[in-house]
Design goal:
Number of helices: 3
Number of strands: 2
Order of helices and strands: HHHEE
Largest sheet: 2 strands, antiparallel
Shape: flat
Length: 142
């Protein structure tokens, strides 16, 4: 049996307390007005936001298109909520929860790939994967 050794140290031995932070001096109304003008000027010079996370082929799609990026982002949000529910079902050991979680995570991954690359590669689409894609052959065989 080994003997436990207790360390003997004095409290705050060589330790220095940090300096307190100084509070910011409050701005006068004139300073606030000048700051808001500078900020508005900087925002105007910046220009409109460019969505670089989307593929260039998706930027000009009309709102009513079945795979519009805004719709796909909404589907991703819904699927993340469903995946969270499936995770809690796994912890409660509900049958089929792992398969549902895998399905939701795969759909989320596929939607993100579509937004980055511009190609929909899944057989289903929609908020709950309820609609089926109708595939069309562009170039015939031969």
């Amino acid at each position: 049996m080994t003997k436990r050794i207790k360390a003997k140290t004095s409290v705050n031995d060589g330790w220095v307390q940090p300096k307190p932070r100084k509070r910011r001096k409050p701005m006068t109304p004139e300073q606030k007005a000048a700051a808001t003008e500078r900020l508005a000027k900087a925002r105007a010079a910046k220009g409109p936001a460019k969505n670089t996370s989307l593929h260039h082929s998706l930027i000009g799609l009309p709102e009513e298109h079945m795979l519009h990026p805004d719709k796909v982002k909404k589907w991703i949000k819904t699927q993340k909520e469903l995946a969270s529910i499936a995770r809690s079902d796994i912890r409660r050991k509900i049958k089929g929860a792992e398969a549902r979680l895998s399905s939701h995570e795969g759909y989320i991954r596929q939607c993100n790939t579509y937004l980055r690359g511009g190609d929909w590669c899944d057989n289903f689409y929609g908020e709950h994967q309820e609609k089926r894609i109708a595939w069309k052959t562009i170039v015939p065989k031969g």
